[in-house]
Amino acid sequence: MNTPAESLAREHAVATGLLPIVRIAEQPLTWTMEERLAHHGCPAAGVAAMRRGELDWVQGFGVRELGTDQPCGPDTMFMVASCSKPVTAMLVLQQVERGLLDLDTPVNRYLRRWQVPDNDFTADHPVTLRTALSHTAGLTVGGWGVYPRDGRPIPTTIDLFEGRPPSTMGPVFVDKAYDGVDRYSGGGFLIAQCVLEDELGRSFADLADEMIFGPLGMTRSTFRHPLPQQFHADVASGHPGDGTVCAGGWMQSADMGAGGLFSTARDYATFLLASRRAYLGEPGAILGASLAREAMTRHDKGAFGLGFRVLGEGSTARINHGGSNDGYQSETNMYLESGDGGVVLTNAVSGIFLYREILNGIAAVYDWPDYLLEPKHLKVMTDDELQRYVGAYRIVSGVEMPLLRVWVENGTLYNAIDGMRFGVQEAYCDTDGVLFNQTGPFETHVTFDQSGRAHELVVMEGSVIILRAVRTDD
After folding, report:
1. CA–CA separation, 446 vs 381, rounded Å?
2. What is the pLDDT of residue 150?
3. What is the pTM of this model?
């Protein structure tokens, strides 16, 4: 049982104890929430902490829009971007449980308005809901942007599929043989959305209201765009990272199933707690235990179950997902055994760093297992040692980006993946020879060739491989 006084004490400990993304033993640091909001230029954060399967506390920090005094509260709405995907997967699985859909039937048998293009890859392995929801179908388009509320046209679903204006992305199709390895694709979740709408004859937003938001009491969550007037009084405006506010405040999405959800820290925590209850097979859960466990177990060689990213094993197993668009960044975690977890929603691109610092603070207060990396001891490298890493590396799994670049400037090692929001990052080496930076709790293990140069980079989050890249400048 979480008593109000104990919950308040834990909230205060988190708000005054934010931690670096990767702690460095020689640089012990902690910060307050206010300090890091200001440091990152992020106006607001909505935060929820869960303990022993219950919501422990929820709070808003900062202001809803830069340059105003409009406070962010515990029920302020944010765009949660790709944190939409677990909700979409849950909707699909509910229809599988009802016998209306099948995970292993080719999706083209369900789709009415559009078809996944046939090619040699789909002839061998047709796209199914299982492969789409686990990011293993080989589908293109990692994600789509969001659109300002300035009167310009918004792409239709078919525009997104076909890659035609006003969409700025290419078409959705399969360009990779099935190998059990995931490659993140919003295209698969747009397909899942369309399967639901075409097969059930209902709008995606209506289905979410009826099947998930209503039953769980998630009164401040919606897939409806434009955002209904009833929610306008307490919405966090988006900030693209250049000191400005998104035109019209918040943004609009064209891809509901992949990234169109508006929600609050409280509501999203409610969804995660309900998902865990389904995993445990508790009476009255929103999904039966069998399908819930399929959703929350890693699929084949990838890091995803069905909709959920799954990290850890046994007592450290947790479901996870993040969200990223041009004005908002979010991250969520829920431990399946303990029922501890956290939700952080932010309204600026710079929140991609802030949310990890907040989650690290939560992890320290709640003693999350296998979450915080041990503080790193830095290795000082010579110029010759630094040069071993310099080069271009072709990304072969993890993200739909072509290259990871590593270079040295003024005696410092840097890396970047062009097109990723992390930008240029200083890279460090610990005394075990593992590389890391301050983008996330990631450790890069390096394989060297016979000449002593780095040949392969394998980026790990805990025991899960999240990216592999092989030198391509030989």
Report:
1. 15
2. 84
3. 0.93
